[in-house]
C-alpha cells in the first residue's frame, strides 16, 4: 500500500513580483526544503496552463513525503527554521496574493498504461 503523504500549497502571485518571486521560490526555497527537511521524497511545482481572468497564474507545489510520520516530522522541522520563516514572511507580504495549503495521504493510486 502506498503510504505517501503530501503537503499541498496553492498560491497566486502579484504579477509585478511574479518573475522575481518564482526565481527565489524555485531556486532557493524549494531546494532548501528538499535538502533540509527529512522525509521529503520529491517536490514538484505546477502552473496553470493559462492565466485567469485577471491575467494571474495559479501555482501548485506538492511536497511528497514517504509517509504521514515523515510529514509530521517535516512540519516540525519547517516550523523550527527561523530563516525560512523570515524569508517566507517577507515574500508573503510583498508578492503572494493568495495562498492555501493542506495535507493529504494517498487514498487510491491507479497507474496508466506503461507506468510501473
Task: Explain briefly what this protein structure is.
With 116 residues, the chain is an alpha+beta fold.
Return residue spans where pLDDT drops below 50 for at least 5 consecutive residues. none
Class derived from helix and strand content: alpha+beta
Counting DSSP E segments of at least 2 residues, the number of strands comes to: 4
The end-to-end span amounts to: 14 Å
Average predicted confidence as pLDDT: 90
The rough form would be described as globular
Tally the structural domains: 1
How much of the sequence is in beta strands? 25-35%
Rg from Cα: 15 Å
Q: Could you name the CATH topology?
A: Alpha-Beta Plaits
Count of helix runs: 3
Order of secondary-structure elements:
EHEEHHE
Helix content: 25-40%
Task: Give a quick account of the main beta sheet: strands, pairing sense, barrel closure.
Answer: 4 strands, antiparallel
Strand order of the largest sheet: 2-3-1-4
CATH structural architecture? 2-Layer Sandwich
CATH class membership: Alpha Beta
Amino acid at each position: 500500500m502506498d503510504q505517501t503523504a503530501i503537503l499541498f500549497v496553492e498560491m497566486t502571485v502579484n504579477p509585478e513580483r511574479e518573475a522575481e518571486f518564482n526565481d527565489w521560490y524555485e531556486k532557493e526555497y524549494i531546494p532548501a526544503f528538499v535538502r533540509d527537511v527529512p522525509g521529503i521524497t520529491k517536490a514538484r511545482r505546477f502552473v496553470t496552463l493559462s492565466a485567469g481572468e485577471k491575467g494571474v497564474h495559479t501555482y501548485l507545489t506538492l511536497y511528497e513525503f514517504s509517509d504521514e510520520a515523515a510529514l509530521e516530522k517535516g512540519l516540525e522541522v519547517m516550523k523550527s527554521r527561523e530563516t525560512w520563516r523570515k524569508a517566507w514572511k517577507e515574500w508573503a507580504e510583498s508578492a503572494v496574493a493568495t495562498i492555501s495549503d493542506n495535507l493529504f495521504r494517498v487514498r487510491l493510486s491507479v497507474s496508466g498504461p506503461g507506468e510501473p
